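User: Please look over both lines:
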Amino acid sequence: MASSAHKHHHHLPNPYATTAAPPPTPSTQPNEAADALSCLLHRLTPNLTLSLPTRHSSPPATAVVTTPPLISLSDPAETLRSNLLSAGSQFGFFQLTNHSIPSQLAASAESDALSLFNLSPDEKQLHFPKNWPLGYDAGDDDDEESTISGESSVCLDSACSSESTELNLTSLREFTADMAKLGLQLTEELSCAFGFDNPARPDPNKVCSLMWISDSRGTSSNKPALSGRIYPYAIGLQYQIRCQKYSILTDSGWTVVSPNVDTILVTLGDIAQVWSNGKIKKARGRAGPNLSGANNSDCVSMTLLITLPVDATISPLLPKLDSGNGEESNPENDCSSKSAKEERIFNSFSFEDYAWRIYHERLHSKDPLLRYRAQLQRPLLFHTSINDA
C-alpha cells in the first residue's frame, strides 16, 4: 500500500518541506522471474527471429491519420447520447464541437502555460513543489528507456494553485475552470448514454479535476508518443488551438488523429471503462502530440482530466449489476439502464494503489486493467501484435 504521505493531492506542500515519496507497493516491486526470462531471451541467437516488446510503445511510422468522430454539444439530448454511445463504444475518443470555450481564452491559457516552462529549474521546483501527482516533473530520468524521457510536465489542481503570487495564471485558471465544467457535463451525458451511475450527481466531491501541461518542445521526432506520465482518468479534454496530430493508444492499438481547429479532443479513460463495466473503449493515458515529420516548436499540450480523489474506490457503476455474491446494486439514477442484470467484468479496487502503480509503470504493452478483471471474464481487450507494442 502506498504511503498516505501523498494522499492529500489537492493542496501543494510548503516548498521548504520535503514530501517523502511513498514506498513501492507490491505491484511495483521488481519481477525477478520476468527479468530473468528477458535476459535469457535476449541471449538467444538472432536466427530465431523472436522479438520482445520494447519498454516504449509507439505508433507505426506508416499509421493512417484519421479524423475523430464529430459530436455537437448543441444536439438534442437523444441525438447527443446516441452519438456518445457510438463513439465511446467504437473508438474511445471524439472531437467536440459547439462547446462554450472561447478560442481567445484557450490561446491566453497556452501563453500562461508556456511561461511556466520558461522558468528556471529551481523556480519550477519552488513554485510547484512535488506532491504526487501535483507539481513539476522534469522528465530527466537517467534511464534512457524511461517512460518520461524527453518530456517535462506540470500537474496542477483545479485552481491551478502555486506557492508564488508572482506568477500570472489568470487565463490558465479560467480556462481550467471552464474545461472542468465541460468535463462534468460530459460525465453526466456519458452516464446517461451508457447507463451507469454518475458519482458526481449526488456529490461533486466524488470526482476531481487536474490540469496536466506537457512540454514536448525539443523532443526528437523518433521519441515514442507515449512518453509522459500516465494517470488514471475518466475523461480527458484537449482544446485544439491549431492544426495538430495526436497519437492515441486504445484497446485496439495505436491511432493517429487530426482534430479540427477550435474543437476539443475528448479521450475516454480507464475509469470510464470500469464505470461502464467494459462498455466504453478506453484510451491509455493522455493523447500525445505526434511529432513524426512535424514542427514541434509549439508542442505544449494542456489536458484537463476528470479523475478521482486518491482515497476513492473504482468499481463498475451499472445498475442491476451482478456483484458476484448474489447482491444487486440499485443506485438511484434517472439515466440508469433498464436492461437485465449483467455480470460484473471488473472487480472493485483502490484508486490510489492503481494510480501509483501505472504512474511509475515502465511497461505499457499490457493493459493495466487486466489484473482487475473478474475471474470469469478474461478476454483481452487490447489486440495488437507483439511487434507493435
Remarks:
- The radius of gyration is 21 Å.
- The longest helix spans residues 170-194.
